[in-house]
Each structure stands twice: as structure tokens, then as C-alpha cells.
From TrEMBL:
GO molecular function, one term: dioxygenase activity
Organism in which the protein naturally occurs: Sinomicrobium oceani
Keyword Metal-binding: yes
SUPFAM superfamilies: Glyoxalase/Bleomycin resistance protein/Dihydroxybiphenyl dioxygenase (SSF54593)
Keywords: Dioxygenase, Metal-binding, Oxidoreductase
Pfam families: Glyoxalase_4
Protein name: Catechol 2,3-dioxygenase
InterPro entries xref list: Glyas_Bleomycin-R_OHBP_Dase, MMCE/EMCE_epimerase, VOC_core
């Protein structure tokens, strides 16, 4: 049997309370809503181990079309824990990071919409300017502006 090989990263999932707010936030970051719908029934629970579930899902895609965020709002079963405001050094999946072209302008725009800068926008050598922000519902998002792009 041929060994399986990785083809691509399909998406990263984020669970939220308010799907419309999350779509609006990630649209402001620069993603596009690719589709929205319900995922429900026994078959879905067989994948997740949650038995019968009902989840509203929005798929957001990056401008290059290669990466996606799957934003989910669980209707049933209820969510059981909340990691949204966990500090950066918490165990488990924590944040998603995007490469942007004008970090200062984007951060200013996101702050006007209620996002909070976690620390500062810093420069790493002559390579990147970076920051973390807490967006809608306290979701941690990293932003990186590559310097001296070729």
C-alpha cells in the first residue's frame, strides 16, 4: 500500500457564539465568505464524536484561495468549554495568523470595530512586523507584515 502524503491544509476551525459578528470581523481582516449552511444529523456526530449535532457553519477563504477558516456556531449540543480569552502560552490550539500588507492600517481599522491589541506591534529583525489582537468574542488572531518582500 502506498504511504499517504499531505496534499494541503484544508481549514482551521473556530467555534463562536455569534456567527454574523465573526463573519464581519474576518471579512474586515480580508477573508471572503465562501459559503454558509447547516451541518447536522447523526453522520456529522459520527465524525466529531458528539452524536446528533446541529451546527451552523460559515467557510471563509483567504484572498489567494488556498486557506480557509471554518467558523461554527453549535446549536446542539451546547459548547462545554471556552478558550477564547486564554493567554498566548496556553496549551492547545490557540490562534490563527495572517500575513497582511499594511499592518498599522488594519490594526487601526480592527480596533475601531472593537478589537484589542494584546501587546504591541513589534519588528522582528528586518523580516516581519508582528502583533496579536483579540477580535470578535476575544478570539486571538496574529497579524504579520513581511518586510522587504521580493
Amino acid at each position: 500500500m502506498e504511504k499517504s502524503k499531505l496534499l494541503e491544509m484544508n481549514n482551521v476551525g473556530i467555534v463562536v457564539e455569534n456567527l454574523d459578528n465573526a463573519i464581519s470581523f474576518f471579512t474586515e481582516v480580508g477573508l471572503t465568505l465562501e459559503g454558509r449552511g447547516m451541518v447536522e444529523g447523526e453522520w456529522a456526530g459520527q465524525v466529531t464524536g458528539l452524536e446528533n449535532q446541529s451546527v451552523e457553519v460559515a467557510m471563509m477563504v483567504t484572498p489567494d484561495g488556498h486557506s480557509r477558516l471554518e467558523i461554527s456556531k453549535f446549536l446542539t449540543p451546547e459548547t462545554v468549554s471556552d478558550h477564547r480569552t486564554a493567554p498566548v502560552n496556553s496549551l492547545g490550539y490557540l490562534r490563527v495568523m495572517f500575513r497582511v500588507d499594511h499592518i498599522d492600517e488594519l490594526v487601526s481599522r480592527l480596533i475601531r470595530q472593537g478589537a484589542e491589541l494584546v501587546g504591541e506591534i513589534v519588528q522582528y529583525e528586518d523580516v516581519y512586523r508582528l502583533c496579536y489582537i483579540r477580535g470578535t468574542e476575544g478570539i486571538l488572531v496574529g497579524l504579520a507584515q513581511q518586510l522587504n518582500e521580493k
